[in-house]
Automatic annotation (TrEMBL), chain A:
Highest taxon of source: Eukaryota
GO terms, molecular function: chromatin binding
WD repeats by residue range: 10-51, 138-172
Protein name: WD40 repeat-like protein
Membrane spanning stretches: none
Keyword line: Nucleus, Repeat, WD repeat
Residue ranges with Low complexity bias: 324-334, 875-886
Entry keyword Acetylation: no
Automatic annotation (TrEMBL), chain B:
GO terms for cellular component: GINS complex
Organism: Suillus fuscotomentosus
Domain GINS subunit per the UniProt entry, residue ranges: 75-175
Name of the protein in its database record: DNA replication complex GINS protein PSF2
Subunit structure comment from the entry: Component of the GINS complex.
Length: 979, 183
C-alpha cells in the first residue's frame, strides 16, 4: 500500500553517482555527486531552500559521511576531506589514497574513526583526532572494495568487494584480522563504470548487532547472522521483482528501506513483508537511502542526481522508526504510538539452537498477510495484540498452494506442471501470455492466449485446463475452464465468485482419455464428459462443478484449506483442521472425496515430520494419492480404495538417493509412476524450477529399507514394492478375478521369489524357504521351488513344499481370496439398514469382547490368510449380520420371514459362510475373528500354528475328517432355507 | 563394381552410420504409442512424459516428424568431451569412448541439435578429438607389425579409416618378413 505522505525532491547534482549521509543529530543531510560538490541540506527546510555547497573536490564525490563534530567527503580525486559539522568550511585532509578513487567512507559508531575504502584493495581506518594514527586492513580482498560498514559495537568492519565477497574484519586495539569471508551473497560487479557498480552492496548491520542485511545476487534481501556468518532468512516480495539497488535500516532497526525498480519499499524487519511503497524518480535508480537518526524521515539520492526526502515515511499508527520505547513522535504530534515490538533478531541464538530447517521463516508473522489488505483500524488492533505471541515460536502455518506452481520470477512462472503438461505464464506488464503445452501432443494440442485477468492459479486436468484470477478493482474473482476438444473456445465457461471472495485453489479432474480427444470415436472423444472441477474459496468451502459448468454441491472445509489435486474419480484435499502445533508440526489432514457422490473415501493425517512442510500432492499413474514433503519423503496412500483402511507407505526417501550423495540438490516432483519418480532436479538452494523448461528426470523408486545384504535386499525391496503395486491394481479390479497385466506381474514376482528361495536353500534356512514359498502365486512356481529344494538335497523341506502345493491346489487361489476380500469391503461398509419399528424381534446384537475370551491358537498371518481375516476383524458395522451369527435357528427364521428379498440374498451368502466357519472352529476356542475363513484355509492355518512338523499322510487324514465334518455342517443352512 | 579399388575394401561411413542406427538412445516422446514390434525387436510403449529407449533410426524418424526429443547420451556433453580431450592430448594411449561415438554423435547433432546443449561447442570438441586421435593412429604406423595389430579403445569409424591402408601395409610387411626365411 502506498503511504499517504509524499516525498519532496530537489535536484541536487548532475546525473551519475550520488551519495547521502545524515549528520549525527539528524538536522543536516549531506549529498555528494559527480559535479564535485557536496551540498548541505537542512532537513527542517522544504523544497525551496538554497543549500550551501563545498567546492574543494577536484573530481566527482563518491562518498560522504558524518562524524562527531565534522563531516567527511571522498571522491575520485582520491582525497578524503574533513569539514566542520553543518558548514561548508574545509578543515583539512584526512588522507589521500595515492591516485585511487575513494569508494566508501564509514564512520564508526563512536564517531571517532573513519574506515576508508578505495581502489587500493585495502581499507584504512583513520583516527579523526590524530590522522597519523592509521590501521591498514589488507590481504582480505583481491578486487576493489565497493562498500564498507561498521558493526554497531565498532569491533567488526564488513567490507563488500567487487568480486562478490563480504569480508568481516575483527578490529581490536592491537590490529585487525579477517574473521570471515562470505562468498556468494552479493553480486560480482567488476567493471566500475557499469551501472551495477553504483548499486549499494553494503552489509547493513541491524542495531542489535546480531545480523546484517545485504542485497543478494538472487534479488533478495538476505539476513546474515553474526554468530554463524550464514544466511538465516531472506526478504522477498512476490510483487516486486528486480535488483535491490540500495538498503537502509531505521535507527531502531524495526524497518528496512530498500530501493527496487524505481520504487522505495519499506519492510518490517520482524514480519519480512513490505509495508509501504513510494515511487522513486522515473528512469533513475536509487543508489543510496538513509533513515534520519533522530526523525521519522527517509531520504535517498538517485542516478538522476535528485535528492528525495520522505517525511513521515512511517505512518503515525505504526511503531516509531527511531526510538526503542513508546514515545511521542519526533514531530511533536500527539498521536500515541504503539510500543516498539521486540525485535525478531534479539534471540537468534535460540532460533538457531532449534535446528530449524527453514531458517527463521517459521516464526509466526503475527501481523500476517492482513498487513497489506486490512483496513487501518484492524491493523493497529492486530499489531497490538500480536506481540505476546511473538515471544513463543509458533509454527508458521503453511499457506495455501497449488501443486506444481512456482512464484513469478523474472516475469515468468509456472501455473501448473504435472504429468499432463505445463502452463507457463509470461508477464507483459499490462497482461499475461499463458502458454499451455502438453507432454503428449498426439492426444491434446497445445495453445496459448493473452490473458487480461492475470490468472494466478492454474490446474491442468485430463479433460481441460482450469484457471482462476483474483478479484481486482471492479471485476470479481472468477474461474475459467477450457475443456480440450474439437471446438476451440465454444466449450469454455466462466464461474464468477461474489464480491469479496477469493479463489484459494482449483483442481480439474477427469477420466484419462484412452485415445485422442480429437478422435470422434465413441471411446475417445468427449463422450466421457469434460471432467470435474473443484474450487476452494476464501469463504471456507469446496465447490464441485461438472465439466460443463453445472454446480453440483458446495462442501464446507473443516478448517483451513491448504491444497488439493484431482484424480480420475476423486479429489484429494489437504486441509488443516485446527492450528499448527507449537513443536513444528503442520497438522495437515488429507481427505479423499469421490466425484460420484461426494463420499469421503479416506481421511488421513499426513505423515510429515515436525518442522517440515508439504511440498507437493498428486496422484500416481495408477491413481493412488501421493505426497512429497520438504524432508524429502514420498508417501503413497495404499489401500486407498478400501474404505477407511488406507495407510501412508513411505515409498522413497530422496535423501538416500545415490545421486544425491555429496551434492546439494533438491527435487521438485512432477509425477509418480510405478517404478519412477518424475521430477525436476534443482541445483543448490534453488527452490523452484526456472526457464527454459528443464527436462523431466526419472529417478528410480526405492523403498527406504535398511537391510544392506547385497544379494537379498534388492530383491526383497523389489518384491515389496511390486507387491504394493499389484495390490493397488487388484483393488481396482472389482468382480474380475485377475487381469492379464496382474498375472504377468505376479509371474515376475514369483521369479524374484524363486531367486530368494534359491539363496535361502543354499544357506539352509528352512523357515525362510517355507515363508517364501507361501508367498508364491502360482502352483507352477511352487513346483519349481520344490525342485530347488530337491536340488539342494533338502528332502524334508521338499516334502513340506509339496504339502503346501497340494493345499494350494485344493483351495481358493490368492486371486479368489482377494476378490472375496474386495466384496467383503462393500459388505462391511454397506449402509446400515434401518430396522422397521416394532418389527425387529432379534435379540440384541452380540458384543465381541476379545479381552474376555479364552486364549486361542494364533492364526498365522500369511499374505493369503491375512487378507480375509483382517478385514473382518474388529468390524461390526452390520449389526444385523452379526446378530444372525449368534441367534438361534428360530431367530433366523423370523428374520428371513420379515426381510425383503433384496438383502436376503446377499446376507445368506455371508450367513452360510459364517456358519460353516463357526462350526468348523467350534470345538477349539477360536476367536471369532477367523470364522469367515474358508474351511480349507482355516485348516492350513491351524496346522501351521499347532503342528510345525507333519507328514503328508497325516495331513491327508486330517483333511478327510475335516471334509466330512464340513459336509455335515453345510447341510444346516440349506435346511434352514427350506423353512 | 563401379567403385575404385581403394574404396571397395572398406565399409563406407554411411554404412557404418546405418549400423550405428541400431544402437538404443533415450527419447522423450511427444506422442503416445503402444509397444510395437519391428524386425529388430519390440520397442515402446511411448507414454509422454516418460522417457523411452528406442533405436537411433526410430528416434531419428520420430524427431524429424517432431514427435520426440532425443535425450543426448551422457558422453555427448561439453564436460565429458573436454575431459576426454585433455586426456587424449596428455596421454599416449587412446582414451575410452563409446565404440560408435562418431556415428551416433553425427546423427544426433544433425537431427536434434536443438536438444543438445552447446551443440556448436560439442561439434568443435568432437572435431578436436578426432584430430588428436588421428594423429595418434598415424604415430601408431611406426609400430606396425606384420602379424598383429592391437587397437584398444579405437572406435569403429577410426578403424574403418585406417583399415585399407593398414591391411595393405601389413600384407607387404608380411611379404618382407617371410622372404628371408624362404631363402
Amino acid at each position: 500500500m502506498a503511504s499517504t505522505s509524499k516525498a519532496i525532491s530537489n535536484s541536487a547534482h548532475q546525473q551519475g553517482q550520488t551519495c547521502i549521509a545524515f549528520s549525527r543529530d539528524g538536522k543536516i543531510a549531506y549529498t555528494g555527486g559527480l559535479d564535485t560538490l557536496v551540498r548541505i541540506w537542512h532537513t527542517d527546510q522544504g523544497e525551496d531552500q538554497e543549500p550551501e555547497a563545498a567546492y574543494e573536490a577536484d573530481e566527482g564525490i563518491t562518498a560522504v559521511a558524518a562524524a562527531e563534530g565534522c563531516w567527511l567527503s571522498g571522491g575520485h580525486d582520491s582525497d578524503v576531506r574533513k569539514y566542520i559539522s553543518g558548514k561548508a568550511q574545509f578543515n583539512g585532509l584526512v588522507m589521500s589514497a595515492a591516485g585511487a578513487s575513494i569508494r566508501c567512507l564509514a564512520v564508526d559508531p563512536s564517531g571517532k574513526r573513519v574506515a576508508v575504502a578505495s581502489d587500493e584493495l585495502l581499507v584504512k581506518i583513520v583516527d579523526l583526532d590524530e590522522i597519523t594514527n592509521v590501521v591498514v586492513l589488507e590481504g582480505g580482498h583481491k578486487k576493489r572494495i565497493r562498500k564498507t560498514t561498521w558493526h554497531p559495537s565498532g569491533t567488526i568492519l564488513t567490507t563488500s568487494s567487487s568480486d562478490g565477497t563480504i569480508v568481516a574484519w575483527n578490529i581490536s586495539d592491537t590490529g585487525a584480522k579477517v574473521e570471515n569471508v562470505i562468498d556468494g551473497v552479493i553480486p560480482e560487479v567488476v567493471d566500475p563504470e557499469s551501472p551495477e557498480f553504483m548499486h549499494d552492496c553494503s552489509a547493513v548491520w541491524h542495531p542489535s548487532g546480531q545480523y546484517f542485511f545485504a542485497a543478494s545476487r538472487t534479488h533478495e534481501i538476505v539476513a546474515i547472522s553474526r554468530s554463524t556468518w550464514t544466511k538465516t532468512s531472506s526478504l522477498s516480495d512476490p510483487n516486486t521483482v528486480g535488483v535491490t539497488t540500495a538498503l537502509a535500516l531505521s535507527a531502531n532497526g524495526v524497518y528496512l528501506a530498500s530501493a527496487c525498480n524505481q520504487e522505495i519499499l519499506i519492510w518490517s524487519v520482524q514480519t519480512k513483508r513490505v509495508l509501504w511503497k513510494h515511487p522513486g524518480t522515473p528512469n533513475a535508480f536509487t543508489i543510496q537511502i538513509a533513515f534520519s537518526p533522530t526523525e521519522n524521515l527517509l531520504a535517498w539520492t538517485d542516478t538522476e542526481g535528485v535528492l528525495s526526502r520522505w517525511r513521515d515515511a512511517i505512518p503515525a499508527e505504526s511503531p516509531d522508526p527511531v526510538h526503542q520505547t513508546a514515545a511521542g513522535s519526533a514531530q511533536g504530534t500527539t498521536t500515541k504510538r504503539k510500543p516498539t515490538p521486540p525485535l525478531w533478531g534479539e534471540e537468534p541464538e535460540a532460533v538457531a539452537e532449534g535446528g530449524d530447517p527453514y531458517g527463521d521463516d517459521w516464526i509466526i508473522d503475527d501481523l500476517g498477510d492482513g498487513m497489506e489488505d486490512e483496513p487501518e483500524g484492524a491493523k493497529a488492533m492486530r499489531s497490538g495484540d500480536g506481540f505476546v505471541k511473538e515471544m513463543v515460536s509458533i509454527t508458521k502455518a503453511q499457506p495455501a498452494f497449488q501443486p506444481g506452481s512456482t512464484p513469478m520470477e523474472n516475469k515468468k512462472r509456472y501455473l501448473a506442471y504435472n504429468m499432463v503438461g505445463v502452463i507457463e505464464v509470461t508477464d507483459q506488464d499490462t497482461h499475461h501470455i499463458v502458454n499451455v503445452e502438453f507432454h503428449d501432443r498426439s492426444t491434446r494440442k497445445g495453445y496459448h492466449f493473452t490473458d487480461h485477468f492475470k490468472y494466478d492459479l492454474g490446474s491442468l486436468g485430463e479433460r481441460g485446463a482450469l484457471f482462476a484470477c483474483p478479484p481486482e478493482l471492479d471485476h470479481p474473482a472468477q474461474v475459467i475452464y477450457k475443456p480440450y476438444g474439437t471446438w476451440s473456445t465454444q466449450g469454455d465457461w466462466t464461474y464468477a465468485l461474489p464480491k469479496g471472495q477469493r479463489v484459494l485453489g482449483i483442481a480439474a479432474g477427469g477420466e484419462r482419455p484412452m485415445r485422442s480427444l480429437r478422435d470422434p470415436s465413441s471411446s475417445g472423444g468427449d463422450i466421457q464428459g469434460q471432467g470435474n472441477i473443484v474450487i476452494a474459496t476464501s469463504s471456507g468451502d469446496l465447490t464441485f462443478l461438472s465439466g460443463s459448468g453445472m454446480e453440483r454441491i458446495v462442501l464446507g472445509v473443516e478448517g483451513e484449506y491448504v491444497t488439493m489435486a484431482a484424480a480420475e474419480e476423486y479429489v484429494l484435499v489437504v486441509h488443516r483442521p485446527g492450528a499448527t502445533t507449537i513443536d513444528g508440526s503442520q497438522s495437515l489432514v488429507a481427505t479423499l472425496i469421490s466425484f460420484e457422490d461426494f463420499q469421503v473415501l479416506q481421511e488421513k493425517p499426513l505423515p510429515i515430520p515436525k518442522g517440515h512442510t508439504l511440498r507437493w500432492i498428486g496422484t500416481t499413474d495408477e491413481g493412488a494419492p501421493a505426497i512429497y514433503d520438504s524432508a524429502g519423503y514420498i508417501h503413497l496412500m495404499i489401500h486407498h480404495r478400501r474404505p477407511n483402511r488406507a495407510a501412508w507407505a513411505r515409498l522413497m526417501d530422496t535423501n538416500l538417493l545415490e545421486r544425491k550423495q555429496g551434492k546439494d540438490e533438491s527435487y521438485w516432483p512432477v509425477g509418480l509412476s510405478q517404478d519412477t519418480f518424475m521430477c525436476l532436479i534443482l541445483k543448490g538452494r534453488q527452490e523452484y524450477p526456472g526457464f527454459p523448461r528443464p527436462l523431466i528426470q526419472e529417478l528410480p523408486v526405492r523403498l527406504p529399507f535398511r537391510n544392506q545384504d547385497p544379494v537379498d535386499s534388492p530383491i526383497e525391496e523389489r518384491i515389496a514394492r511390486e507387491r504394493i503395486q499389484v495390490n493397488l491394481a487388484r483393488d481396482a479390479l472389482g468382480d474380475e478375478l485377475t487381469s492379464p497385466d496382474i498375472d504377468k506381474r505376479e509371474v515376475e514376482l514369483d521369479k524374484q521369489l524363486i531367486k530368494l528361495i534359491q539363496v535361502a536353500c543354499k544357506t539352509d534356512k528352512a523357515p525362510r524357504v517355507i515363508e517364501l514359498v507361501k508367498r508364491l502365486h502360482f502352483p507352477n512356481s511352487i513346483a519349481a521351488a520344490s525342485q530347488l529344494a530337491g536340488f539342494y538335497r533338502l528332502i524334508g523341506l521338499q516334502e513340506k513344499i509339496e504339502a503346501i502345493k497340494l493345499w494350494r491346489e485344493q483351495n481358493a487361489t490368492p486371486a479368489e481370496e482377494a476378490r472375496e476380500a474386495r466384496q467383503g469391503f462393500a459388505y462391511d461398509d454397506a449402509p446400515l439398514a434401518r430396522p422397521k419399528p416394532f418389527q425387529n424381534f432379534n435379540p440384541p446384537p452380540k458384543v465381541d469382547r476379545p479381552g474376555l475370551t479364552r486364549s486361542a491358537g494364533i492364526v498365522e498371518q500369511t499374505e493369503f490368510t491375512a487378507s480375509s481375516v483382517a478385514i473382518r476383524a474388529g468390524r461390526s458395522l452390520a449389526p444385523r449380520a452379526s446378530a444372525s451369527r449368534s441367534t438361534s435357528p428360530e431367530g433366523k427364521r423370523k428374520r428371513d420371514d420379515n426381510d425383503d428379498d433384496l438383502s436376503c440374498n446377499t446376507f445368506d451368502v455371508g450367513v452360510k459362510r459364517r456358519a460353516v466357519g463357526e462350526s468348523n472352529v467350534a470345538p477349539s476356542p477360536k476367536p471369532s475373528t477367523c470364522i469367515a475363513i474358508q474351511p480349507g484355509r482355516a485348516y492350513i492355518s491351524i496346522i501351521y500354528c499347532r503342528q510345525p512338523i507333519f507328514s503328508e499322510d497325516w495331513a491327508r487324514s486330517q483333511e478327510k475328517s475335516f471334509r466330512k465334518k464340513t459336509r455335515a455342517q453345510q447341510t444346516y443352512p440349506k435346511e434352514r432355507e427350506l423353512f | 563394381m563401379a567403385l575404385p579399388q581403394s574404396l571397395r575394401t572398406s565399409v563406407t561411413p554411411l554404412e557404418l552410420e546405418l549400423i550405428a542406427s541400431e544402437q538404443l538412445v533415450e527419447i522423450v516422446p511427444l506422442i503416445t504409442m503402444e509397444k510395437t514390434a519391428f524386425i529388430s525387436g519390440a520397442y515402446g510403449p511411448l507414454r509422454p512424459p516418460a522417457k523411452c529407449r528406442i533405436p537411433l533410426w526410430m528416434a531419428t524418424n520420430l524427431k524429424l516428424k517432431k514427435k520426440c526429443h532425443i535425450v543426448p547420451p551422457e558422453w555427448l556433453s561439453v564436460d565429458f568431451l573436454l575431459e576426454r580431450l585433455t586426456r587424449e592430448t596428455s596421454r599416449p594411449e587412446f582414451s575410452k569412448l563409446p565404440f560408435r561415438f562418431a556415428e551416433i554423435a553425427k546423427v544426433v547433432l544433425d537431427v536434434a541439435s536443438d536438444d543438445v546443449q552447446n551443440a556448436d561447442k560439442i561439434k568443435s570438441l568432437l572435431k578436436d578429438l578426432r584430430e588428436a586421435r588421428q594423429a595418434k593412429s598415424r604415430d601408431g604406423l611406426q609400430k606396425l607389425d606384420h602379424s598383429e595389430l592391437s587397437l584398444p579403445n579405437l572406435c569403429s569409424m577410426e578403424i574403418n579409416e585406417i583399415r585399407p591402408f593398414f591391411i595393405q601395409s601389413m600384407g607387404i610387411l608380411t611379404q618382407l618378413v617371410r622372404e628371408p626365411s624362404a631363402e
